[in-house]
Amino acid sequence: MAYRVLPWDSTVFADVMGTHSGLTASLSGSEWRRAGSPTPTRGALPFSSVVVQYPTSDELLVRTGTLWGSDAAEWHTMTFAEWRTLGFPAVDYRAESGYSRLAWLETIVGQDPITGADGPISYDTWLDAGRPTPKVLQAFPFDKYCSTPGGAEIRYVGMAAPEGLSLTFRQWVAAGSPTPTAC
Asked: Record's superkingdom (predicted)?
């Protein structure tokens, strides 16, 4: 059994190691006292932790917990000093996925965890990914702006809104006032 505490938090974690694997449990104050109030190590991540980086940001995100998609997992955006304190643990670089958004639209585009396809993601999916700061883009490849001949509405169709989105004047200007094609 090893006890750990992270540089940015006072929660004590207990690493329980078995023959072939291990798990991490967060301890309440009374559980820690029952264990004899052992001095936790500050210079190592708990066993069930991972440091993640996405290609769309230089952030290092730490996930500590036992189950993906569970409330037991906690995410933290790590500073360089915290990474150094932990001994520069290995980074799980997730080259296959990243998170982006248009400068004029709040919708975050990322990889769907079930299908693997890129497109607009839910808030919960973004939370499960560690709340990475999305890369802000002016446009995605193959974005289209169109309008019906004689109509006043301009629609955006692209990665951030595959079904299309009616633009406000302000959004259209922020998108660079693109000349619409016919829908």
From this structure: Bacteria
What is the Rg, in whole angstroms, of the alpha carbon atoms belonging to the chain? 22
Residue type (1 letter), 4: R
User: What is the model's pLDDT at position 100?
Assistant: 97
Q: State the pTM of this model.
A: 0.82
Residue 66: per-residue pLDDT: 59
Sequence-separated (6 or more) residues with CB below 8 Å from residue 42: 4, 5, 6, 7, 85
Q: What's CA 22's distance to the chain center, in Å?
A: 25
Beta strands in the chain (DSSP E): 2-5, 12-17, 22-27, 49-53, 60-64, 74-78, 92-93, 100-102, 108-111, 118-120, 135-137, 144-147, 155-158, 161-166, 181-182
Judge whether residue 8 has pLDDT over 80: yes
The DSSP bridge partners found for residue 136 are 101
